[in-house]
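Sync notes, pocket subgroup
Present: LS, DG
LS reminded everyone that the earlier model was apo-only. Rerun requested with flavin-adenine dinucleotide included. Inputs:
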Amino acid sequence: MALDKLADRVIDTDVMIMGGGIAGCYCAAKAAEHGLKVTLVEKSKTDRSGCGAMGEDHYEPVQCDGVTPLEFVRLWEERQHDLNGDGRFTDRNIPYRLLDKSLWVLEESEKLGITMKWDDGEYYHMPSGWFGGPRLMIRVHWPDIKPKLARAVRRSGANILERTMVVDLLTDNGRVAGATAIDTRTGEFIVIKAKAVVLATGIFARCYEPEEPLFYKYQMKYHWCPASISGDGYAVAYRAGADLANMDITGWGLRIRDDLTISYGNFDHGDGIRAKWYTWDGDEIPYPTADKYREIELKGKDPIYVSQSHLPDDYHRRMQIAFTDEKAISFKIAEERGFNPRTHRYELMENHPLNFMVPTGVNVNDDFAASLEGLYAIGDCANGCHGCGNAALGGLLVGDNIHRFISGAGEPVINQAQVASQKQTALAPLGVKRGTEPIELELSTRYICKRYVGMLKNEGRLLEGQRRLRSLKREFLPKLMAKDPHYLMRALECRNIIDLVELHIAACLVRKETRGQFVRLDYPDKDPSRDNMITIQRLDNGNPALEIREPPDLKPEYLKEEK
Ligand SMILES: Cc1cc2nc3c(=O)[nH]c(=O)nc-3n(C[C@H](O)[C@H](O)[C@H](O)COP(=O)(O)OP(=O)(O)OC[C@H]3O[C@@H](n4cnc5c(N)ncnc54)[C@H](O)[C@@H]3O)c2cc1C
């Protein structure tokens, strides 16, 4: 069947960007500057989509105080050590490149109409970074970063498809050839022919429950933007044969139970100054890392509370500004609920993996190229590149260089059988009348992660979780129903979440050790053979394959700096 009979619309482009968050917008605007035909596909509305939708208050890395890219590589590894054990979980050339290009990004941002400077016209370097260390982090007033970026993309002439969800990638002979997508308002099935595809879909977290009190109406009330965190970019990359990295490693971080009012980020680290932590009966305790939190619980000393009442007035004023830049409504809601951040102690929530710092993602090199030819990944969905600074950097770097690949790429060849099969999968839930609601299946999947994977793992639980997930997938995935194109999007997100949870469990089973935040109760010690290793998962001829691999070393030209 001809392509125009299979698809309601066919779009021909040089580069397709999947996701119009911070990374995707930077990338689209820059790639269009090089005269490329750019198509940005965004599930939501680009003006307020993604995790940066409400705003951002801090940005890193920004090179200063003579810190060299090589030193930054060491800091990066230390930070990963704190969060996840002492492995270096990404290509080490990535942090090198990020710091090396950090000042260029500031200039490029100004050209796009995004200022990084503070009210006095200078960069506001925070006294120390997130976890201490050099002043590589700056404060930014970014409450409207998304509308500004969306305007920049529109000015660049890029084609923006909104309310459009990418379903799967199209491939041809081991290279990417475009993607299929659905319009989540009209249900149109769209084929996008592209010489290169950039994934910019954000972090994956919807396999665990949100931080909020779990009443039925808060099922999507995550700290993160719920549309971003269904892992669509990871899932399409995996199904197309690209490598995913470190799907076993979940971050662990504290959150405030009343996240609706105040989020933990500023509360604890605002301006580089830390809060204080207390047991329920008022004993001050050190920063409760995952294992300490559990110890305190077992001693019957929880809930744990965080407080800033010891900090001076000017600190509180700075925090107020930070919150206004990031989540303007926070203080208003706090006030209405009778909470005063200057005096109120906030309850910290229990162990909750995958809610913060998730270093997993599409495996990329320092050009942000994935293992499939013509495929790139930037921002939160690229392995280890979390945060708005890395999103901006990755987006600009790929946007600035992708024309080199495209000039030699040739016309993409579309495999019509592949399109037909993707269309069938994509639209199937519209034809199911008495089936399963996407949210029902999603909640069951999240429950499996919470109960059988979670923070404290063992082989028995993981195997049981795997068995239950497979049974859910077999029985209920084909029964997913969608009463309209919006629910179709939910159903397709659910399919992505299930695929990724399968990988998450498989990778956790293979890591038989305890390291940093990865806790296997049945293997309490580190396995030295896992030092500095990345867990890679991919489909080999349609079969799941897992490989433990050492990441690339620093390039010789980067090492020269040390001499
Ligand atoms: C409240 C909050 C405050 C934060 N504050 C800071 C801060 O101050 N500093 C900092 O460094 N970081 C901060 N972060 C993190 C920061 O926002 C992210 O690191 C950053 O937004 C990542 O950008 P991204 O483009 O990779 O992903 P996102 O901004 O999440 O964008 C992903 C986009 O992809 C789209 N998408 C997903 N799937 C599909 C699909 N199938 N088809 C089409 N489109 C799709 C989504 O709709 C979304 O628009 C904050 C996060 C939150 C939630």
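DG: The first strand starts at residue 9 and ends at 18.
LS: The chain has two domains: 1-252+359-554, 264-347.
Action: DG to write up.
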